[in-house]
Each structure stands twice: as C-alpha cells, then as structure tokens.
Write a structure and sequence with these properties.
Keywords: 4Fe-4S, Heme, Iron, Iron-sulfur, Metal-binding, Oxidoreductase
CATH class of the largest domain: Alpha Beta
Number of domains: 3
Pfam family, one: NIR_SIR_ferr
EC number: 1.14.13.83
Protein name: Precorrin-3B synthase
Strand order of the largest sheet: 2-3-6-5-14
Organism: Microvirga tunisiensis
Length: 432
Amino acid sequence: MSAQPVSERRRGWCPGVRRPMATGDGLLVRLSPFGGRLTADQARLIAEAAREHGNGHLDITARGNLQIRGVNDGTYPELLALLAREDLAEPEGEGPNRPTVLSPLAGLDPHDRIDAFALAQAIESTAAAQEGLPAKFFVAVDGGGSLPLDAVGADLQLTAGEDGTVAFSISSSGNLHGIGAASLPHAPAATRTFLSGFSDMRRTGRTEARRLRDLQPHLVQELIASAALEPAVAMLQRPEPPRAGVIPIEGGHAVLLALPFGRCGTEQLLQVAQWSERFGTAEIRLSFTRGILLPGIADEHVSTLIAEASGAGFITDANDPRLPLLACPGKPDCANALTPAPADALRLASARSDLLAQGTNLHVSGCPKGCAHPGRADLTLVGRADGRYDVVPYGSTRDVSTLHLSIDEIMTRLLLSKTSADLRRAFPERTR
C-alpha cells in the first residue's frame, strides 16, 4: 500500500457560498463559519434557506462546515444574496474559504491549555492577506483539551503543549508528524512564515504540491528553518474525541449530537436552534466529528435534551455502534461518487454491528476524495468505476490497494470477522 500521486487522485475543488459545486442532486453550497459557530437565528435562517432554495438536505463536513444541497441554477442567485447579506458567505478570492479548524469546545474546555480561539483569529488574519494558498489548505488549532484534532487531516496542526509551547505538526499518510515547536507569542508569526513560504514556493514553480503533506522533505525543512521553530517536543497521547454525548464544561455541560453520515434535515436544524434557545445559550457549534454541539446546558436540562434529540434522529450515546461508520453522500447525490456509499455502509453495518461496537472504524467513500474522513480507518473502501471497491485495510483513501472487491465479496469476508485481528486476516494488506 502506497500513496498515489496527488495529480492522479485529486478531483474537483473546495466549494463555498460564492463557488458552488455541481453534484448529483444539484448545486452544493458550503458555509464555513469561523469556529463552526452559529447563532440560533443564523441556524434558523440557513435551515429555511435550504428548504426554500435547496432540496432540504444539509451535510456537516469533517471540517465542521455546513453544506446546503440540491440548489438549482434558478434559485442560487437569491440564496447567494441572502447568505452574503447575513455575512455567511466567504470572502471573494480563490484562497481557502476558512483557513482554520477549531474544536467546538474552544473557549469552553477546562482542559485547554491555550486560548485556541484567539490563536486561530491571528492565523486567519494572516491567511486572509496571503495570496496563493490552495483552496483546500487549512490549519488546525488544537488547545490540547478534550477533543483532539489529530484526525482532521490539516496541512499544519498547532497543538498546545504542557510547557507553554505550541507544537507544529504536518499530517502525512494519516498520521501527525511533529516538525517543531514555538512559544505561544511566536506561534502566529511562525505560522505566517510557513504559509507565505509555501505560497512563494508554489508561485515561483519550486513545487506543484497543493497540500503541505505532499511537499518535498527538503522544502519542508526550509520552511521549518525560516519559521525559526525549536526542536519538536513529544506530545501526550490523547484518546480519540467522542462523537456524541454529554461533555462537562465550565458552568454546565455541552451536549454533542451526532448525525448518521453527517446528514442533517432542515427540521433537525430548526429543532437544534430551538433547543439552543430553550436549554442553552442560543448558540450552536458545528463539529469536525460531523455533528452539532450545544454549549451551556444546565444539569436539569440535559436529560430532557437527550431524550428529545434521540427522538428527532440524533445519536446521543457515545457508544452507539453507528458512530464508527463513516460514509460520504455517495451516488447519485454526489456527481463524483462511483458507488452508493451510504447504502453500502449501512448494509455492512447491519451485518457486523458487533464489530463496530468494539470500536472498529469503517469508512466507505464513493470516490478517492475521501470527503467524509480524511484520515485512516481500520477498513477503508474506495468506490471504483466498475462498482467495486478498492479495499484499504488500516489506511486512507489516499492509499493504493491491489485488493478490489464487490460489496458482496466484502460482506462475505466481514461475516467471518469477529475481532480486529480477524479483520486483518480477512483483508490482508497488499502492496504493489
């Protein structure tokens, strides 16, 4: 198994409000609010706009963005005008729609070691003035708390350390690789140097890489030196972030509501807006776990909120066996998709819910883009034009496998797997 050249795997671009993408069910309009934060009024407006101008389906992405689906050419101009008027459209230009990703708990997490929100704001102002950054480029700003961002696949990740430093890492082959550290006051300037240096390398033709993970090692070392990073520090291992459930925060609780495959209906978003006003602070936060976090929930309201959210189709139990199941919208909703990923994922899950309950991650992607999950999974399936799947054990959609199976063949092998060890034997890793 090896990384396939980016030029052979990359498809499409990064859609936004001003740059919609044509998909199988119409135009896709992606909103990228800073920190994933929306007021209840904004959430209500978006839900009503999705119902009026789209097909009523919304997606929460692996970066905590919100997508309105099924928009047509006739309704798009009015939708654009509405979202721009409400300051929900990205700035003009070809760069990233939103260059940073934060934990939805930023500013609330008692375990955070730095003010990740303030650091992200400093980086955003830097990125906004930097021309030449690819549209998909982004920086993860991790305060070191309860929801680690290790799996989001950022170009550059900044993670708060225990000693007041900020660790700099690059995502490669599904893992984070530490490249250095900086003091908190120096972190914004070091990030600015990294971003401007990468842009200069692209502009002057020194590299064609569109993501830092694809940059040649000697050029990475050049950026590290320019940014004056100190030697990398060892980072504490943290458990994977919960995808659902109740999380203690200062002054109450936050409730993280998960959605199967990140798909949200307009009525669900309207209910979330209403719950945020009724039980919380009239704010909702979109999460990179493809869910919605409601902060500021008092003790006496938690059980009522959980019960109502469960009845509305949200996943509220951190141990729900559906949570390790990851899938994109698939065919026919997405024009790039080659297979019906959600239907196939549910079929696999129905056969092996016990395996998922053990924490085995299963990622079914309709094409090599891997929109639903940028990192590794215990088993990754990548849709092929012939309707079969490239099977990648313990890897990501960026990896190449010579194992190509139909969904029925995959089902047969899964039925014989009761543990992770069985899974490894059923889908032996192959290289070429």
